[in-house]
Design goal:
Elements (H helix, E strand, L loop, with lengths): L31 H6 L10 H18 L5 E6 L2 H12 L5 E6 L2 H12 L3 E6 L8 H11 L3 E5 L1 E2 L4 E2 L5 H7 L3 E5 L18 E3 L12 E6 L1 H8 L12 H7 L16 H16 L2 H22 L16 E5 L6 H12 L4 E2 L8 E5 L7 H26 L1
Parallel strand pairs: 2-3, 2-4, 4-7, 7-8
Antiparallel strand pairs: 1-9, 5-6, 8-9, 10-12, 11-12
Helix pairs in contact: 2-9, 10-12, 11-12
Length: 395
């Protein structure tokens, strides 16, 4: 039989990947131990060793989230999978959800909720602006939402959102509280139980320096009660929190089930990442370090005439720093220059901030003054080069 599609010749060239300084908005660089862990022999998805690694990861995630929730596990998929898992399990047809939208993640939540046929209400803020408890209370009074979504850290703007009081407001209105912690877990205080958060999810490829594709998530007893009281089935098999919980041993009285083939290699990387995080001093040490490094980094840039996108330093996320693009330059030229000449990744804006800001991620092992100084020098040089190109083009 003659093949109609010939063998592709692209695979005649061996795979080659250069080492880069991954200081965009994520993913971040891996520690060598994480790389080595992911080269360990593959395990089956129900092998006892795999299940033990999953149990270890659960304990680590509970520590990172500061929660006693037994229903804490990982979703196989990127950070988006955490958001979709939260929404898919809590929303039924016509449920009212109030979404805070001050960047791309509120927009993504809105898009997912449309697919779930939710009754969507938007609390809009301009990119870079925090939501106040007064604004939220006014919306709660008007809309009586069953679910409230808020991003703790908005990676498209570099905003850090205050979380205090919102949990109490949700309890007052018998509303479930969902929080996006993708860029904040590990770099700034987040207390799931204390803040009365019902579902929180994060990303592994940011502060933890782990591989993407396996997303930590936690559900409160209130959230589980809502799921148990559903009149309709959860619309996703992959993201069904009860089935996933049975796989991740969240119900000790029930046997573990086969839900899907989890990637053991990703489990190795995440477990090693959590171990390294704890060896570096754990949460309090990491909070202090990220705050100090990003503050120094911002000061370096401001002393060179650059302007931060978030005016109030207390509202800046200590993992992703956002810098206004100077007038009359093409940010893509500066970003390309940094990568071409130094293999340093600088992210541009995302969603509502495209063309308006640069975003620098100083996360985990990249949250050092040495890396910060290197990236600051590269960014400043790259901007000057873009300014020069702009001047030459006008001659």
């Amino acid at each position: 039989m003659v093949l109609e599609i010939p063998k592709p010749d692209v695979f005649d060239t061996p795979l080659k990947v250069v080492e880069k300084t991954m200081t965009g908005a994520g993913p971040s660089n891996y520690h060598d131990r994480i790389r080595k862990s992911m080269s360990l022999p593959v395990l089956g998805h129900l092998h006892p060793e795999t299940l033990k690694i999953m149990d270890d990861i659960k304990e680590g995630i509970k520590y990172l989230f500061q929660t006693e929730n037994s229903h804490t596990f990982c979703v196989s998929g990127p950070g988006h999978a955490g958001l979709e898992c939260a929404l898919t399990n809590l929303i039924e047809n016509g449920d009212t959800i109030l979404i805070t939208s001050c960047g791309i993640w509120g927009q993504r939540a809105e898009l997912m909720c449309k697919k779930l046929n939710a009754d969507i209400k938007i609390l809009f803020k301009h990119p870079g602006e925090q939501v106040t408890i007064k604004e939220a209370r006014n919306c709660f009074r008007m809309y009586q939402p069953k679910i409230f979504f808020l991003a703790h850290g908005e990676s498209s703007t570099g905003l850090l959102q205050n979380l205090s009081e919102f949990g109490d407001l949700c309890r007052e209105y018998d509303c479930l509280f969902i929080v996006d912690c993708v860029i904040t877990l590990g770099c700034t205080p987040i207390f799931v139980d204390k803040y009365k958060i019902d579902v929180a999810y994060s990303g592994t490829q940011k502060v933890l320096n782990a591989p993407p594709g396996i997303t930590p998530i936690t559900f409160s007893p209130r959230a589980l009660d809502k799921i148990a009281a559903r009149k309709t089935l959860v619309t996703s098999y992959n993201y069904d929190a009860i089935l996933l919980g049975e796989y991740w041993n969240c119900f000790p009285s029930r046997p573990r089930i086969y839900h899907h083939t989890v990637c053991s290699t990703l489990l190795y990387g995440l477990r090693e990442a959590i171990a390294l995080f704890l060896e570096r001093g754990g949460l309090e040490s990491s909070w202090e370090n990220h705050s100090q490094v990003t503050s120094n980094f911002s000061n370096m840039l401001e002393s060179n005439g650059l302007e931060m996108f978030i005016d109030d330093p207390m509202h800046r996320c200590p993992s992703v720093v956002s810098i206004k693009v100077p007038d009359n330059i093409d940010p893509h030229k500066a970003i390309s220059y940094a990568m071409k000449n130094y293999y340093v990744e600088i992210s541009g804006g995302l969603g509502p901030t495209v063309g308006k800001i640069f975003r620098i991620g100083l996360m985990g092992i990249n949250a050092t003054n040495e890396v910060a100084e290197k990236v600051a020098k590269v960014l400043i040089e790259s901007i000057k080069e873009a300014e020069h190109e702009n001047l030459v083009s006008k001659i």
